[in-house]
Amino acid sequence: MPIHNSDISSIFDQVADLLEITAANPFRVRAYRNAARTVADQPQSMAEMLEQGGDFLELPGIGEDLAGKIVEIVETGTLKILEELQEEVPGNLSELLQISGLGPRRVAALHRGLGIKTLEGLAEAAEKQKIRTLKGFGEKTERHLLKEVKRREKSDFTIKLADAEQIAGPLQAYLEKTKGVKRVVVAGSFRRRKETVGDLDILVTCKQGSKVMDRFKSFEDVDEVLVKGDTKSSVRLRGGLQVDLRVVPEVSYGAALYYFTGSKNHNIALRRMAQKKGLKINEYGVFRGEGGDGDRIAGASEEEVLSAVDLPYIEPEMREDQGEIEAAREGKLPEIITLDDIRGDLHSHTKATDGRSSLWEMAEAARLLGYNYLAITEHSLAVRVARGLDRKRLEQQIEEIDELNEKFRGFRIIKGIEVNILEDGSLDLPDEVLKKLDLTVCAVHSGFDLSAEKQTERIIRAMDNPCFNILAHPAGRLINKRAACRLDMVKIIEEALDRGCFLELNAHPDRLDLNDQHCRLAKDRGLKIAISTDAHHSGALQNMRYGVYQARRGWLSKNDVINTRKVADLVKLLKR
Ligand code: DGT
Ligand code: CA
Ligand code: CA
User: How far is it, in rounded angstroms, from Cα 484 to Cα 508?
Assistant: First the structure.
């Protein structure tokens, strides 16, 4: 069985979870979290790297110990220390950590006080109103926990887009190697670049369907064959992801791609529109009259399908039945942003705090991407596990950056900070220091469970500080892990606009925060967005594309995004 980077990263995360519950040294926890992130961010597979004699020590933040652990996972599929921790920590306490509002300390308290070991145990205790009897837990928390457990039970299986890519890439390459195969394309929510996908929908054109199907079911990751036919098969992969494969004829390739890209609601709306023109659209083509092959007027390409109903091309990311068909009909579809429009990155970290590359390495990587600027924005003091900067260390970094900037032509390191928004809405460093910077990225890192009113107030109070530029990862969510904070986003957008502040779309595939709806809200009100990677090592600057996908889903154009600007214009925009 091949070990994917996401398997390794998930094992490291589980170790970190369990270490946290057992109140281990926070730096040790951090080391595993960082390693999980490093491995997940690597474009090449660790298993392949090992096979080819690569050296894990070259990965940022991976020392002898962790390098050995990666080898252990690739070779054995598991990790001894994880198994030991699982024996030490009872039941399934780590799944409790995925409930919003439950940190390791509270999980440990629930276990010690009430013997809770599982989600079911948590729900039962909440229903019997036992949780409110524990010190530090109230009635409100109890209700909240119950609601969260129920919400999780309902939510179906999904995986993050970046994890889906790690599976789709090799599978696509594998299928392309089948004799007689012409095209292989992944449609569905994957092609619409949704932040999470429920399953993969693959379309193939080829001479002989049965050959592809045979090869498909022999893919090394297949755990179970659910359906096998000559034109359609479905399998479940190890890890739970389902993949549907369809063989489609060349003449209806465009219609099939359109149909299986979805979304379902978009398709329904499009079909309804076509009906009014006396046309019929399905996965085989666009038809006039009865819909026999002789009546086909389009189908080979998506452009052909859309122009048959008098529409311009609609980008897959916009096909959600959110007004795109009307906009297309009226010629009002925005031209949405592309990765090429991005001129720089406005949120990144270095070794000085919890990043793993040096200032120089980060700048070089940004230059290689063709950027004109990169903002270095370390954590501030209050984020202790990240060794957040105090005034003195920040001033030292400012000097280093000034020196480096002398060496560049057509590139500049922007001096910034990711400053903490404390619970009273103040910023975690004095204004005199913040004033020395070109940019502040301001973020909530604690107190995620305030009421919507309090959280919104806290952020607006922070924006009152004239040093405030960009609100980082505004909703604080971690996809499939931590729910968004309760927040009045409309209000925050309006108040940001009033004060000349901006919101970030954090491009990290675990965050993608703002979501697509928030992006559209901001655009509609005229508030501009920064798309930033929050990179903790030089390779992670490449996560920008995930942010751009999300921005496209939120209909943002080049002009709606501040880091498409030249540096001089950007600096002007940041002046409040
Ligand atoms: P997912 O997999 O849950 O992340 O989302 P999708 O959009 O990939 O949904 P999926 O896999 O169920 O179906 C793939 C595409 O096939 C979907 O986006 C549109 C099309 N499709 C599926 N069922 C229907 C249907 O009943 N009617 C229409 N018009 N299209 C459908
Ligand atoms: Ca799908
Ligand atoms: Ca499907």
Answer: 15
